[in-house]
Known about the structure:
Layout: E1 3-7, H1 11-20, E2 25-29, E3 48-52, H2 62-74, E4 79-84, H3 89-98, E5 102-105, H4 109-133, H5 139-154, H6 168-175, H7 192-197
Parallel strand pairs: 1-2, 1-3, 3-4, 4-5
Helix pairs in contact: 4-5, 4-6
Amino acid sequence: xxxxxxxxxxxxxxxxxxxxxxxxxxxxxxxxxxxxxxxxxxxxxxxxxxxxxxxxxxxxxxxxxxxxxxxxxxxxxxxxxxxxxxxxxxxxxxxxxxxxxxxxxxxxxxxxxxxxxxxxxxxxxxxxxxxxxxxxxxxxxxxxxxxxxxxxxxxxxxxxxxxxxxxxxxxxxxxxxxxxxxxxxxxxxxxxxxxxxxxxxx
Length: 202
């Protein structure tokens, strides 16, 4: 069961989301501008945040955007989905820069809720695999795990560089369970392409 925070000033929408998100634990607050005064949550004790960008307490979203970076630092493990009635591209970029992972149009929220939960489950599994592979409590190790989590979600091609023994293969294993390790230095140069990419006779 996941702990989910719904930031929404419409009581009817809050109740609809609470029912739709059952059996997960759902906490709610009317605006990020009122957090944490009206709701006490331990640091990093959230899995998902559904954040309504604008509210009666913050009609132009400036307070929410200003508080989002600190909120992100306090709950680094949480996946933050911002919802808004506006499809303003500049506003979307501002949300991502402030620490949100995704942006949803409010009119599509209920229809896309299964996708939100599926993404949350995939992120939890990815985080667990990274934590199992990359161990340690130092600030550098924690930062590495967060970077690997972000890279794993990016869909980008990734090149891992480093000195011998730095942990390149561990990082690769944390990103994917489908890994083939090859000692390139042991391959003769004339067979390099054939060994890595295959060949066709003739």
